Amino acid sequence: MKTYTTWDAIGDMFVIYGIVIVISMLVAVVIRGIVWVLSRQAQEEPVKAPAKPAPVAQPALASIPQEHIAAIAAAVAAMMGAHRIVRIEAPSRGFGWTAEARTVHHTSHAPRASH
């Protein structure tokens, strides 16, 4: 009866590492194929016409000249393409909704009581 030596263990480790490497490469090839197929499908989708910009008329903007708003909108359109400005408001406002969203997000992870 032959005993299991250190060299046998090292040889088995190389065999196992080789199998793991081959399986990892196969998984990588499958993922690469999925990404390729999905990117081809995304390129083949028809390009939709850009949405028409909504008129900017809000009472909070009374202190900002309309020429400034038009210049900002033109700069955004030049830099980002066809986008719409949904809301412009003073920087001192708008923190309440972020705090509320954080609270809702953090409480969604709270453990539930067992029923």
Concise synopsis of the structure shown:
The chain is mainly α and 115 residues long. It has helices spanning 6-44, 66-80, 95-107.
Task: Explain what this protein looks like in three dimensions.
The chain is mainly α and 115 residues long. It is built from three helices and no strands. It has helices at 6-44, 66-80, 95-107. The protein starts with 5 loop residues before the first helix and ends in an 8-residue tail after the last helix. The model has no long low-confidence stretch (mean pLDDT 79).
Low-confidence stretches: none
Proportion of β residues?
A: under 5%
* Chain-averaged pLDDT: 79
Which class best fits the helix and strand makeup? mainly alpha
Query: What is the molecular shape?
Result: elongated
Indicate the multimeric state.
single chain
What gap, in angstroms, lies between the N and C termini? Answer: 60 Å
| SSE order, one letter for each helix or strand | HHH
Q: State the domain count.
A: 2
List the total number of helices.
Answer: 3
Secondary structure tally: strands: 0
Radius of gyration, taken over Cα atoms and rounded to an integer in Å: 29 Å
Major sheet description: none
Helix content: 55-70%
